Amino acid sequence: AILEAALLLGEVVTGWDAQTCRDAIQHSYNAWLREFGTGNKEHQQIIEQTEAFLNAYGFSRFAPFPYSSADMPVKDLAGYRQKGNHDSDPVIFYTFRGAFEKEIAQNFNPTQFAEVLKNAGMLKPPASGRGYQRKSPRIDGRQINVYVLTFRPEDYDEPEE
């Protein structure tokens, strides 16, 4: 509406009539829609940011589980990773709260970030349905609260754009 008003007021400069102004606005809007679609770009950015972190640090900052203190130490440990017994099983990343909230969800509200990942099938919430952290498997005899992440499932359907 603002662009249309500006074009109509600029008729003296452009020489365009009202219909030409509306056509120009419609053309610009259609081009924008083709480029960006109607989906929520923030959700797409959250998924991409999470996958980028897991791709970059999944094997360097996540210690393999089960983990022994005799294994080589991991610099800037972000959590633990566990691969299932079958090739088709996903790698599960037990992610520490600090790494999730300060690094993976950087520049976003961590609660909203976790909700988007849960809806995308990338975060496994606790069975109680409250919050987004679960208990980790026992590591050196103790369990801690972690965010349980995986890569986006291959059968995940993208929202319509």
Provide structural commentary.
The chain is an alpha+beta fold and 161 residues long. The protein has two domains: 2-36; 41-149, no CATH class. It is built from six helices and six strands. Strands 1, 2, 3, 4, 5 and 6 form a six-stranded mixed beta sheet that branches. A hairpin with a 7-residue loop joins strand 2 (79-83) and strand 3. The mean pLDDT is 89.
How many helices in DSSP terms?
A: 6
Instruction: Enumerate the spans where pLDDT stays under 50 for 5 or more consecutive residues.
Output: none
C-alpha termini separation: 23 Å
Write down how many β-strands occur, each being a DSSP E stretch of 2 or more residues. Answer: 6
Sequence of secondary-structure elements: HHHHEEEHHEEE
Organism: Enterobacter hormaechei
Protein name: DUF927 domain-containing protein
